[in-house]
Task: inverse folding
C-alpha cells in the first residue's frame, strides 16, 4: 500500500493570507533564489519586502554558530543520548531554553537539531547524536526540546527524515522498510513533533527509502514528504535538504523539498529558474515553497513589520546555561551496578585517590562530526575531583592505550622551516606550481580554511628533531590529490581530486596518516614534505587538510598498566575512567567493534585486583562491551557529557547530585547477541529485516539476555512498587495509571516509573513496548503516587490492508516497573471493538 494515502483529515495550515502580498511582490527570479541557500549557513535576503537572511547552524549537542573562527566558542551540551537517559521532560524543556539562548547568542534563527532517527544498531556512527532506540521516548524528549526553543522564537530543524539510522554509504544507500514499520517506528517521532510541537522545519536525509511502493532518495520521496508529512500530518513548515543532498531539480521540487542547502550553486541554484520557465516545475508549486519560507521567516522574526512567533520570546537570556548542563549530565549518569553501595563517596572517607584510565587523562566529552563545537569551558576529572574532595591526594595515570592514531606533531617545540625558523613553511600553489603565498606556521591544527580560488595545493615543509632514543613515527594524513614524503621516502601519492564527498563521509575528519617508523639511537632529524590538494567543494568553504603527526617513544602498555596498578594498590579509592574517543564515535562512519579500544579491559581487571574499592566510570556515548561488569562492585555509565562533564562526575561521586539516569538503549553482553549487528548495505540496500522489533523489542522476541536491559538504572536508593490502579479508559482511548511506590532506602531519591504495553494475543506485535513513563521524587522511607498516561496511540497498529490505524480489541496487560525486564506490577486494560485511530 502506498504511504501516499491519507487516512485522516489533514490538519489545516495556519493562515498565510498576511504573506500573500509579500509573495505577490516577488519576481520569478527572486522566488527561485529564495528556495536556495545564499551560502553555507544562510538563506537569501530580499530587502524590498523586509526579508533579512535567516541563519542556520548545527547542532544536536550545542549551537556552533555561523563562523569557522577559532575565537567563536559555544556551550558544549551532553550528547542527546544523555538527555534521553534522564527520562525527564522537564529537563528537556530546560535544554530547549538553553538551545534558544545559545542560538540568540550566536545570531542563529534555526538550529539543525534534534536528530530523532532511532538507534537501530549499536554500531551506528551517530548513535550518540540520537535519543533512543525507542520511538516513544525519542518523541517525548524531542517534543519538549523543540517546543521550548520555539516558544522562545528559535526554530528547530528536526532531522533526518526518515530511516537514516547508520553511516556506511550514507549518501547513497536505500533503506528498505515496510509500511507498518515505517508508520509504527521510524515515522512516529516525526509525527509527534509535527502534531505536538508544531516543528517549524524538517531536514530530509541523504539516504533513500523503499517503502514497498516507491523507492527514491529522501528529498524526492513524494509519498513521504508530500503525502504523509505535508498533506496527512498538516506540516506547514520548511523541508530543507541535508547539505549537498539535493540531487535533482524537478524530482526534488515535486517530491516536497522546499529549501536546497547550501547555495547559491547546486541543482536548484543552477537549474530551478530554467525548470520553472520550461514548465518542468510549476510556478504554483514554487509559490507554495516560498510561502513556507516566508512563514518560517515570520516565526523567527526575519520579516520586518510582521510579528514573530514565540510566547516566551523575550524570556531567552534568563537561564543558567552551565547550571542546566551540569545538572543534566549529572542526572543522566546511569548506575549500572552498585553492589556495595559505593555511591556516593564521602570526602571524609578518602585521603588518596587513584584516578586511572585514558579517559581520566583526556576525557571524551563530545562526538565527532557536525555535532562538534568549540567549548566555552574545559576542565579535567583531576581538577574537578580535587575541587570536590578537598584535601586529598589524587594520582593520575592513563594505565592503558586507547587511541590508535599518532598524536599531532609539535611544530613549535621540535620543528624548523627550510630557512631555519621555528615551525613549518606553508606555501599555496597554483595549478602550475607557482607560489601564490607563503608563511611560517607554528600553530597548526591540521586545517587551512578558506583557501583562495586560484590555489590548487598547499605545501608544508619542515625538519623534525627526534631526540628521544627509541621508535618514532612521523607522518601526514590527508585527503585527495597529494604526495607525502618523509625522510626522503615517498610514503603516499594520489592523483585523485576530491570534493564535497570527503566532508559528507567524514573521511576528512580523521584521515589515516601515512607514516615512517624511525628507530633513534642518538638525536637526529627527519624532513617532512607534504603536498596536499586545496579542496574547493560545491556548497562548502574551501580548505586544505594535512594532519601532521608524531608518535614519540613512550611507555609500553605493560609499563602503563604496572604504574596504574601500583597507584590503585596505594589508594583508598580507585576511580577507573574508560571509554571511547574521537576515533571511535563520529558522524561519517560506523563502528566495526563494540569492544573498548586498546588495553582498557585489562586495566579495569588489574585495578580491581589491586584495590577492591574500585569505581569504574564508562565515558562513552554508544554501547560498548563490559566483560568485567559482573565483577566490579560499582559501574557508572557517564556518557559524552559536554563541557560540564568533569564537574558533573564529581557531583555524582560526592553525592551532590543523584545519578538518576536510565538506559535509553540496550547494553549488550556479547557482540554475537546483538539483533542488528551492523548496517552495511548489500548492493546499496539496507534491509530493515527486524521490522517493528527495534532495539529491546528484538532482544525480547529473540529471548536473548543483555548485560543491562532498556530502561535499567539503579540511582543511589532502592524502591518498592506497591500498587497500580488503572482509571477508566478515556473517551479517546487513553489510559491513566496511578502508581504507588515507596523509597525503601536511606536517602531521598528520584525514580523513573516505566509502563509497558503487551498485546492481547501473541502475533506479529512486539512482546512489549514502552507506553509511558514519569519521574517521581520521594524522601527516604516515604510513599509517592505518580500518574502515568498511556496514550491511545500506544495501543494502535498500522493495517496496510486498509490502509490505516486500528486498535485491536482485547485485554492488554499493562506492566509497570524499573526497566523493560524488571517489571513489578501488572494491571489489565480491556479495550473495545477495533476502531479507526
Result:
Amino acid at each position: 500500500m502506498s504511504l501516499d494515502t491519507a487516512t485522516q483529515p489533514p490538519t489545516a495550515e495556519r493562515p498565510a493570507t498576511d504573506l500573500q502580498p509579500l509573495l505577490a511582490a516577488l519576481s520569478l527570479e527572486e522566488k527561485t533564489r529564495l528556495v536556495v541557500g545564499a551560502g553555507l549557513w544562510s538563506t537569501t535576503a530580499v530587502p524590498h519586502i523586509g526579508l533579512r537572511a535567516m541563519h542556520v547552524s548545527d547542532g544536536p549537542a550545542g549551537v556552533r554558530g555561523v563562523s569557522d573562527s577559532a575565537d567563536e566558542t559555544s556551550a558544549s551540551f551532553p550528547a542527546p543520548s544523555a538527555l534521553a537517559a534522564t527520562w525527564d521532560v522537564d529537563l528537556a524543556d530546560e535544554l530547549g531554553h538553553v538551545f534558544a539562548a545559545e542560538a540568540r547568542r550566536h545570531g542563529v534563527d534555526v538550529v539543525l537539531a534534534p536528530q530523532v532517527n532511532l538507534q537501530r544498531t549499536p554500531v551506528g556512527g551517530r548513535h550518540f547524536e540520537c535519543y533512543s532506540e525507542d520511538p516513544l521516548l525519542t518523541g517525548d524528549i524531542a517534543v519538549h526540546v523543540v517546543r521550548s526553543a520555539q516558544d522562545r522564537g528559535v526554530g528547530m530543524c528536526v532531522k533526518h527524515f526518515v530511516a537514516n539510522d547508520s553511516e556506511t554509504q550514507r549518501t547513497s544507500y536505500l533503506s528498505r522498510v515496510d509500511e507498518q514499520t515505517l508508520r509504527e517506528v521510524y515515522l512516529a517521532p516525526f509525527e509527534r513533533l509535527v502534531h505536538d510541537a508544531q516543528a517549524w522545519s524538517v531536514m530530509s536525509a541523504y539516504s533513500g527509502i523503499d517503502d514497498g511502493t516507491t523507492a527514491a532518495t529522501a528529498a524526492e520521496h513524494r509519498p513521504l514528504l508530500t503525502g504523509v508529512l505535508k498533506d496527512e500530518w498538516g506540516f506547514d513548515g520548511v523541508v530543507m535538504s541535508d547539505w549537498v543532498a539535493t540531487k535533482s531539480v524537478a524530482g526534488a521540487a515535486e517530491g516536497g523539498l522546499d529549501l536546497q542547502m547550501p547555495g547559491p550553486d547546486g541543482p536548484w541554484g543552477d537549474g530551478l529558474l530554467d525548470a520553472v520557465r520550461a514548465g518542468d516545475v510549476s510556478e504554483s508549486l514554487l509559490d507554495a515553497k516560498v510561502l513556507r519560507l516566508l512563514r518560517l521567516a515570520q516565526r523567527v522574526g526575519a520579516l520586518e513589520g510582521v510579528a514573530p512567533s514565540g510566547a516566551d520570546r523575550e524570556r531567552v537570556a534568563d537561564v543558567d546555561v552551565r547550571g542546566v548542563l551540569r545538572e543534566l549530565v549529572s542526572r543522566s549518569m546511569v548506575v549500572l551496578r552498585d553492589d556495595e553501595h559505593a555511591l556516593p563517596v564521602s570526602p571524609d572517607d578518602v585521603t588518596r585517590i587513584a584516578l586511572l584510565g585514558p579517559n581520566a587523562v583526556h576525557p571524551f566529552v563530545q562526538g565527532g562530526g557536525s555535532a562538534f563545537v568549540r567549548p566555552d569551558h574545559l576542565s579535567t576529572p583531576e581538577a574537578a575531583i580535587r575541587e570536590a574532595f578537598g584535601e586529598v591526594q589524587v594520582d593520575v595515570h592513563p594505565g592503558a592505550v586507547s587511541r590508535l592514531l599518532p598524536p599531532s606533531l609539535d611544530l613549535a617545540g621540535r620543528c624548523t622551516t627550510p630557512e631555519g625558523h621555528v615551525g613549518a613553511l606553508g606555501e599555496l600553489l597554483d595549478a602550475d606550481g607557482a607560489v601564490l603565498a607563503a608563511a611560517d606556521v607554528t600553530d597548526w591544527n591540521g586545517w587551512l580554511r578558506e583557501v583562495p580560488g586560484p590555489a590548487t595545493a598547499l605545501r608544508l615543509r619542515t625538519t623534525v628533531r627526534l631526540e628521544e632514543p627509541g621508535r618514532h613515527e612521523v607522518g601526514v594524513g590527508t585527503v585527495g590529490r597529494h604526495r607525502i614524503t618523509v625522510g626522503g621516502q615517498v610514503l603516499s601519492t594520489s592523483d585523485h581530486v576530491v570534493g564535497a564527498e570527503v566532508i559528507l563521509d567524514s573521511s576528512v575528519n580523521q584521515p589515516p596518516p601515512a607514516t615512517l617508523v624511525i628507530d633513534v639511537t642518538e638525536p637526529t632529524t627527519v624532513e617532512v614534505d607534504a603536498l596536499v590538494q586545496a579542496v574547493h567543494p560545491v556548497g562548502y568553504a574551501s580548505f586544505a587538510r594535512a594532519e601532521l603527526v608524531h608518535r614519540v617513544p613512550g611507555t609500553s602498555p605493560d609499563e602503563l598498566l604496572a604504574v596504574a596498578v601500583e597507584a590503585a594498590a596505594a589508594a583508598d579509592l580507585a576511580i577507573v575512567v574508560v571509554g571511547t574517543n574521537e576515533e571511535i564515535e563520529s558522524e561519517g562512519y560506523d563502528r566495526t567493534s563494540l569492544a573498548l579500544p586498546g588495553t582498557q579491559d585489562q586495566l579495569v581487571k588489574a585495578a580491581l585486583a589491586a584495590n577492591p574499592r574500585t569505581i569504574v566510570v564508562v565515558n562513552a556515548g554508544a554501547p560498548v562491551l563490559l566483560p568485567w561488569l559482573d565483577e566490579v562492585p560499582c559501574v557508572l555509565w557517564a556518557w559524552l557529557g559536554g563541557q560540564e562533564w568533569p564537574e558533573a562526575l564529581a557531583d555524582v561521586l560526592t553525592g551532590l547530585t543523584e545519578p538518576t539516569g536510565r538506559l535509553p538503549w540496550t547494553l549488550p553482553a556479547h557482540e554475537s547477541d546483538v539483533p542488528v549487528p551492523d548496517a552495511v548495505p548489500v548492493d546499496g540496500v539496507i534491509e530493515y529485516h527486524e521490522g517493528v522489533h527495534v532495539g529491546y523489542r528484538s532482544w525480547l522476541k529473540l529471548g536473548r539476555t543483555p548485560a543491562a536491559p532498556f530502561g535499567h538504572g539503579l540511582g543511589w536508593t532502592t524502591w518498592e512498587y506497591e500498587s497500580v490502579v488503572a482509571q477508566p479508559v478515556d473517551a479517546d482511548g487513553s489510559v491513566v495509571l496511578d502508581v504507588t511506590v515507596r523509597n525503601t532506602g536511606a536517602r531521598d531519591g528520584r525514580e523513573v516509573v516505566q509502563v509497558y504495553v503487551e498485546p492481547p494475543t501473541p502475533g506479529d506485535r512486539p512482546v512489549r513496548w514502552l507506553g509511558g513513563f514519569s519521574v517521581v521524587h520521594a524522601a527516604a522511607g516515604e510513599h509517592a503516587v505518580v500518574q502515568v498516561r498511556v496514550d491511545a496511540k500506544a495501543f494502535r497498529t498500522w493495517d496496510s490492508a486498509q490502509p490505516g490505524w486500528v486498535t485491536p480489541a482485547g485485554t492488554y496487560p499493562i506492566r509497570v516497573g524499573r526497566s523493560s525486564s524488571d517489571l513489578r506490577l501488572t494491571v489489565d486494560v480491556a479495550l473495545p471493538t477495533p476502531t479507526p485511530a
